[in-house]
Design a protein that fits this description.
The chain has 553 residues and is of the alpha/beta class. It has three domains: 6-201, Jelly Rolls (Sandwich), CATH 2.60.120; 205-319, Homeodomain-like (Arc Repressor Mutant, subunit A, Orthogonal Bundle); 322-545, NAD(P)-binding Rossmann-like Domain (Rossmann fold). It contains 20 helices and 20 strands. The chain has helices at 6-12, 33-36, 118-125, 131-141, 158-172, 178-194, 205-220, 226-233, 237-248, 252-270, 275-281, 289-306, 313-320, 332-343, 357-360, 377-388, 419-439, 441-446, 471-490, 523-536, and strands spanning 30-31, 43-47, 54-59, 62-69, 71-76, 79-84, 88-91, 97-99, 107-113, 149-152, 200-201, 323-327, 347-352, 367-371, 396-399, 451-455, 495-500, 503-504, 520-521, 541-545. A seven-stranded parallel β-sheet has the order 14-13-12-15-16-17-20, with helices on both faces. Strands 2-9-4-7-10-11 form a six-stranded antiparallel β-sheet, covered by helices on one side. Strands 1-3-8-5-6 form a five-stranded mixed β-sheet, with no helix packed on it. Helix 10 packs across helix 12 and helix 12 packs antiparallel against helix 13 (313-320).
């Protein structure tokens, strides 16, 4: 490689600019792969041209530069990069690239790679979100969601250096199955690099944060937390959550789940450890075991059959770790929602002013119970902190807590009419759900379900208003309906439902509910229908009954 090439000899003999005809068509500043690659090949090597400044250009291929000796200075998308011996630089098709003059002892080799070469590489790498996988996806799609380059300082990482040497050797030799061998070697190289994201150098502050986050997940997937990561990076929790989603297209919990599941599948396939041990090892000790067993075994079987990750991992993961937050869970509909959610494999976070014996009996690995008055800012903030120690996301929120203090149905002029009761119903029925929603918004944004159900009532329908009393209850539920609509306008990525659950046999109801009122519902039946309504995603927003039938606002 150190020998002087014909191109370099011409430069040393007096040529003052690169020979554009070797690289480009006409006046284009894009280096054309057809100029460098033999027809039918997806990858090739060429030594970097020394002794001359290579002006700004782009490539219609993916380029990787490996520094064999010395150093070179690259300007990629306006950023100066010093590439030292043993370091590796990847650039996608959208990156602008300029190289300052290199000297005789500065030996670099360029990998010229068509994006199609990475198809099998990507399959072998699996579905875990990493900087390299994101880079390859961008290359295959012809776009750039990040800096457009990756600079690995891996001079001291012996396994990586060995794989690069193997790749060089494979590409320089004529042998059967050369393409397949080079693809497998490249895939192994990328998988090694995935395990060394700490060597990834980027001047892009935002990109650096994401790389550090992915590196954290790589090593702390079993016991880490978004809260801990935010503290380490000196980042605001909410801002970090949004940045991860913006840069990767996934939230923190999804990334952790993918890593856990991949590791579980690996352990199932390559060790004799039982499922319970593996669940604990990858961080699922407190989750639904039957769901985990089914999920891990499914993925393991799929990987064994195809050598790739399960395309339905995201659906399966929901069975393992879907979180539901329920207020007013001590009795009635809230209690039945908790019971039904547990039967469906959810992890339940139940909030109640007082823990009833029935609710207390549900406490366990998949049910976390918290006491709070939703009208108290201090209580709600405390509960948020408690829950944040257990999870970073909430998939479904049921604002079920409510109060009905108008059972006597007195007129406005009746001496027993109580403005305190009116205010109390507003605080519980309308302000409380808004407080819960606002406080838990970071977790809800991080969740997969993105559905918030406010338990309203037909009493809040202005279109159907016919009552002549129950001011506090009717007005508070109408306010809750308006709250639901405003929230939907403000956060279109969510589904906000205001639901009339029907008359039920609950302490909130009254004796006539089972006799002369329709529809007549058992709380358990209503709970099942509400969960199904949340899961089916049939409506972008809704004010309706428990069957999903719209009602007049």
């Amino acid at each position: 490689m150190s020998r002087i090439t014909e191109e370099e000899r011409a430069i040393l003999d007096g040529r003052t600019a690169i020979d554009r005809a070797l690289y480009m068509h006409g006046q284009s500043n894009t280096i054309n792969a057809k100029k460098l690659l033999v027809s039918g090949k997806f990858i090739t090597l060429r030594p970097h041209t020394r002794f001359i400044h290579f002006p700004e250009h782009t490539h219609d291929y993916v380029e990787a530069v490996y520094m064999c000796a010395g150093r070179t200075i690259h300007i990629v998308n306006g950023k100066h990069i010093k590439l030292n011996q043993g370091e590796l630089l990847f650039m996608n098709q959208s990156a602008t690239h300029e190289i300052l003059e290199a000297q005789q002892r500065d030996l670099a080799v360029n990998f010229i790679v068509l994006p199609e070469f990475f198809n099998n590489v990507l399959t072998i790498m699996g579905e875990e979100e990493t900087p390299l996988r994101r880079f390859l996806v961008d290359c295959l799609c012809g776009q750039s969601s990040g800096a457009g380059f990756l600079h690995f300082k891996i001079a001291e990482i012996t396994p990586v250096q060995n794989l690069i040497e193997n790749l060089l050797f494979t590409l320089l030799q004529e042998m059967p199955s050369k393409r397949k061998m080079s693809q497998l070697t490249m895939a192994l190289l990328f998988m090694q690099l995935m395990g060394h994201t700490e060597t990834l150098d980027t001047p892009d502050t935002e990109q650096a944060v994401i790389f550090k986050a992915l590196a954290y997940i790589e090593t702390r997937y079993a016991s880490g937390s978004l809260t801990e990561l935010a503290e380490q990076l000196h980042y605001d929790l909410y801002s970090l959550s949004r940045e991860i989603r913006r840069k990767t297209g996934k939230n923190y919990t999804q990334l952790v789940q993918e890593k856990r599941l991949a590791q579980a599948a690996f352990l199932l396939k390559n060790t004799d450890r039982n499922v319970d041990y593996i669940a604990n090892a990858v961080g699922y000790a407190d989750y639904n075991r039957s769901s985990f067993r089914r999920c891990a075994e499914s993925v393991s079987a799929d990987r064994h059959a195809s050598g790739a990750g399960n395309s339905n991992n995201s659906e399966i993961l929901r069975d393992i770790h879907m979180n539901i937050l329920i207020t007013g869970a001590s009795q009635g509909l809230g209690l039945e929602l908790a019971k039904s959610a547990l039967k469906r494999g959810y992890h339940v976070f139940a909030i109640a002013r007082h823990v009833s014996p029935e609710l207390g009996a549900l406490q366990g690995a998949n049910c976390s119970i918290h006491t709070a008055d939703i009208t108290s800012a201090a209580d709600v903030d405390r509960v948020y902190e408690e829950i944040s120690q257990k999870t970073e996301c909430v998939d479904y929120l049921f604002n079920n807590a409510g109060v009905w203090l108008d059972k006597s149905r007195v007129s406005l002029t009746d001496p027993s009419f109580s403005f305190d009761d009116v205010s109390r119903q507003f605080e519980v029925n309308a302000v409380g759900p808004l407080r819960i929603t606002r406080t838990f918004l970071p977790m809800l944004l991080a969740g997969n379900g993105k559905c918030i159900i406010n338990l309203s009532s037909e009493a809040g329908s202005i279109g159907n208003a016919a009552r002549k009393c129950e001011y506090g209850y009717c007005m508070s539920k109408a306010a809750l309906n308006m709250e639901t609509k405003i929230l939907q306008n403000a956060y279109p990525e969510f589904r906000f439902y205001a639901i009339h659950p029907g008359w039920m046999k609950t302490p909130q109801g009254y004796a006539g509910a089972t006799k002369d009122c329709t529809p007549q519902q058992e709380p358990a039946d209503t709970a099942e229908k509400l969960l199904t309504l949340a899961e089916t995603k049939s409506y972008p927003y809704l004010y309706g009954d428990f069957e999903g039938n719209p009602m007049p606002w």
